[in-house]
Batch of 4 targets.
Target 1
Amino acid sequence: MNPDLIERMYTEHKKTVYQICVILLKNKQDAEDAMSEVFMKLYKSGKVFENFEHEKAWLITVAKNICFDSFRNFWRRVKSLDSAKNVCEVIRTDETLSLVAKLSKIQRMAVYLHYYAGYSLEEMSRLLKVKENTIKSHLHRARQRLKLEMENE
């Protein structure tokens, strides 16, 4: 793949990929490793993209898969993390994001893609390979939990 193209894609998508990794992994170091792995897969893939949205969707899917795969790792399950603190330290631009970090991984992903990345339910359904109603349920439960957390603060 063309190094200039990889550099452009890295520059344009690094924030999105990194935030997805942080949201899912709840750890700065693990998120950085996962982000590196995403762009290494891009480099090795030689993939040709139809447009900007196609490349963004591909990177998000790869990031999600890499993060979910890391949960299957024995050492990852054993390691204790102070998840909300780590996410708050990494992303200070939005106070609500620290509350999002307390949600389940699928709810975090749904909230991030819908509210932060601007994906529609239909687009999220295709990207995550789940039914639209499932995404609606995850978003509904996430909103309920976030509302409770915000009221408690």
Note: The longest helix spans residues 3-25.
Target 2
Amino acid sequence: MIKSNEWSWEGVRESIFAPWPLLMLAAGIALVAGMALGVFKASLAVAIVGGLFIVILVILRREEVVAVVIIAVHLYVDWYLAQAGVALIMAFALLMVCFFSQSPRRPWTEPRGLALWAAFLILAIFPAIQGALTVHDTLIYYPNIVFGAFIIYWLGTVIARDTAHIRRLFQLLSIIAVLVAVHTILQNVTGKFLFGDASVDAYLAGTSNRLLDANLAASRSGSFFIDPNWNGTFFAVMLFLPLGLFVESASFLKKFFYLAEMLLILPALLFTYSNGAWIAVCCGLVIFLVFAGRTRDRFQSAFFIVIAVLAMVTLFPGQIALQLQHAMQSDDRVGAWMTGLRIIYAFPLTGIGMGHRAYLLRSEPYRALAQDVPLDHPHNSYLEWGAMAGLPVLLTFVALLTFTLWLALRNWARADASSRTLLGAGIAAVMTLTINSWTINGWTFPALAALGWLILGCLSSPLLAKNRASQVEHC
């Protein structure tokens, strides 16, 4: 009887306090989503339908679906179409919805390490102002890569109420990865760019970004990331989500589905010809084998890896040969790294400003001889933090990354065997991004950083530990 009364009171409390803030903020998300859809030059009706779809998802508390939509908007609308800020507004609004509609069944939580986050947010203000030479850089760096990282990470901690929600998030993110993979494959095979933008096409026509070295007659596919290296990093990270789902699932039909996803992601990764992405994948596979839940999961994963390698060598021998030739040729990244180190030595506390334009102009006096052409970033996220924002920001970022990974590892250690494979896949994905960021600006590229912080927020969520403790108590 008491239980029934408690349930009734909870229902009354939710009905009084939740609907109006929920509907108001959902309307805000709908407006932003409608604006995002509007850039497709679609009709007003399509924009309204898309906005209402987001509202329905929010009201039904499908936060994982909305979070994945935010990642997609971050890539296509914010980055490819250069409408920066849409995804951040959506993420902040969704976080507020979660706050105002919290309940025992849908708990609210704050991320751990708020002091570190506060230091990161404060220390990055001056370098962001110093580097705000263009509107694009002003909107990209501090709002998205600094403040946006905090919001997306917090959103991930709230979404991950249990491993079932993480599983659903990984499933949806895998679908996004497959769609981008299909787009990449079609771009490479047919030479046509679906859902392209004329201004981006004009930019790519004036660059050699999609070509391998002069001696290698092959093109590289960047898809909506534009740069093939960013595209390769995306696939390197995303590969581990269907891999974890494949190993964890007991259903033959689901295993077949996840296997098909991986078999589409791998060729797409190959068509980017990204050396750094392949190195990161190899390291990530070792990490996944270590953190797979059970011994049989490790054997199953190792068996699949061998089969996948054989399939790739059999089906794409020419592309594999080109990738190996490309890997053997010299790379100018060493010169870019040396330039970054020289800038850090000259400006250790504040850097030269967080912005591509600022780096392009202010790095020239410090350009190393090994760097042949001017660059707008040092092709390394950690050197980018140091050179653009100074060592205090770099050290704070590394501390944040280390602390949140430690929280994720602690949740993994406390999880049951069946959940460890799923969490291990997420850890491998984050570590892959971390490793790949030594060869490209992964953690400092808005769409990739948002993806990494969302996954890391889920893995390190305090709600996972509380849910596990509750399950043990009921047992």
Note: Confidence is low (pLDDT under 50) at residues 1-25, 39-43.
Target 3
Amino acid sequence: MINQLSNHRMPAEWEAQQAIILSWPHNKETWPSQLDGVILTYLKIIKEIAEHQQVWLNVNSEQIKIEVQRLLTLYCIKQSNVHLLVIPTYDVWARDYGPVYIVQDSNRIITDWEFNSWGGKYSPQYFLDSDVPQLIALHMEEKLIQTDFILEGGSIDVNGSGTLITTKSCLLNPNRHSVVNSNTIEEKLKCYLGIKKVLWLDAALVGDDTDGHIDNLVRFVDTSTVVCVQEKNSKDENYESLRQLFLDLKSMTDQDGIPLKVIPLQMPKKVMFDGDRLPASYGNFLITNRKVLVPTYQSPKEDRDAICVLQSLFPERQVVGIDCVDLVYGLGSIHCISQQVPLV
């Protein structure tokens, strides 16, 4: 099947979408005391998206499906745009285990990558989520190509024109592949995703259990512009690595040799839980057809500034802040729980 791939590419997130994929939250190990708050956060996210495009929402059973329908009605959510799929999941991180879409001519294809629970850090039950791309392909009658390579969707970001950005700390980590090098990975990304150029970065937020997913650090906002999270406080433990990240990006170019334009996006105030720092970042925003959903962290000035920066970069979309303090207790935010489905 892979030999049939040519003239294919992974679209940028700002390109036209049919749907956003989410998985309904239920895991009390992830949110021992925050699950009710996380459910409310989900309802806000679903309501914002469903106003203008589809949501494909994985639920674990017919019984949960009935309960979710009740909540959608209670919160006046446009149910005609919410498709409930009975696809069991262990947790919600659809960005990492969900389908990664490519387009080929007028066709949409799922690339199904291996998922090993972020380097085997967590319960083997997380491996059950690796079935989600195949199950979505069955439910939605999508074409699918299986790969033999471990890749989480949050570890990559693309500009839709051939450039992919990622981190060495994640993709070159031996907990993903025991024997691997950057050339091997680039070959896989070019083969399956139609990538022409890979930009490698060195950075990871304190408290990030993913070994440095790029969607907490750097995001494309157009084909040659990225936002890069920055820390103002020089005594903060993230300060130096994020400063160097910004400098490294300033020396990089896209697939056509055009220098990247790098826009700073300040970090929120620290979000802590049981003495540990959580990976709260404004970089974990989600681009939809008409909106940009930005996680906020009850830091009024910082939240407002982040929304303002992103609104200036997406003037034709409404930038909406959504309180994600409960959500980030699970070590992820809006982008981590979602995956876009391109429109073809």
Note: The mean pLDDT is 97.
Target 4
Amino acid sequence: MPKSKFLKIPKKQGETMLRLAKKLGLVDRTEKIQRDKTHLYVPLSNKPPRKKLESLQQQTCSFEIVTRSLLEKKKQPSLAQLLENKLPKHLLSTLPHVADFVGDIGIVEIPSKLERYKNVIGEAILQTNKNLQTVLAKAGAVSGPYRLREFTAIGGVPKTETVHSEYGCRFHVDVARAYFSPRLSHEHDRIASLVQEGESVVDLFAGVGPFAVMIAKRRQTARVYAVDINPEAIALLKKNIRLNRVYGRVHPILGDARQVVSSRLADVADRVIMNLPETAIEFVDAGCRALKPEGGILHFYSFTTASHSLENIKNVFVEAVEKNGRKVDQFLYCRSVRETAPHEHQVVLDARIL
């Protein structure tokens, strides 16, 4: 049996590291991922560049490179192969290469050139992803105060509700009624790992609760106040509190973040999460007011573009904090979280506020 190089990674970090390794082009997708009780073994592409391995190590926990025997793998036809006789050949190169997977729902963006073939594409995606029941096509941009978008069912069961699993937590999600992004799974895990026992956390734009529930699941004595203006999101959050057995540790609150902080949550937080990148800068006053008088940590999310760099974001954030009578003592972590469009990224600033 031929042998090859594998990334040996702990199962607890498997989801995050596998996604990053694929993004860096380190994974040999023609070979099977192997596993034992404690680790995953991810097949490496031939002679992976050292810089990419170093980048992976900087973004995740440590890993080993080991030699293992390859397993036989049944070749799965690609999306393009399944569709080569159903679409004009010149359109095969425009097929979507990226999909979001929320539970058993796959979400894709169909280029306008392929609009008339969207149902054929949807059914083909189901064939290449046996765990899916539904394929949805984006039918508009995220918009409105609830951050929602419209979808069109193009394959399988026409639904928008599912149960999504992430780092040992399960979430009732309805992608048409409440905002949720599976691309933030690493952030949910990262923030939850930073919270200490006994902390009081305010999640100002909680959605269905991926930050709040994961924190409460990990930290038995932490108290999380989860605020959202969308009643559908709060209804799903309440279901997720019960599903993950964190009742009494996550406190769902329906309302506008600024008004809720002013009336109920002033001076209570050791840590505030502000995952509303479109307009979070407008709520820095609420974030600052929620923190305890002696200060705490603020996790602030925003967008960078070609003309608005991470340094610009940091400067605007510092000014907003100072306008509210607080001070940025130190930036603890500043990094891109995900690419949202060409030359546009969602970024996070972890700042210690005094």
Note: The first strand starts at residue 3 and ends at 10.
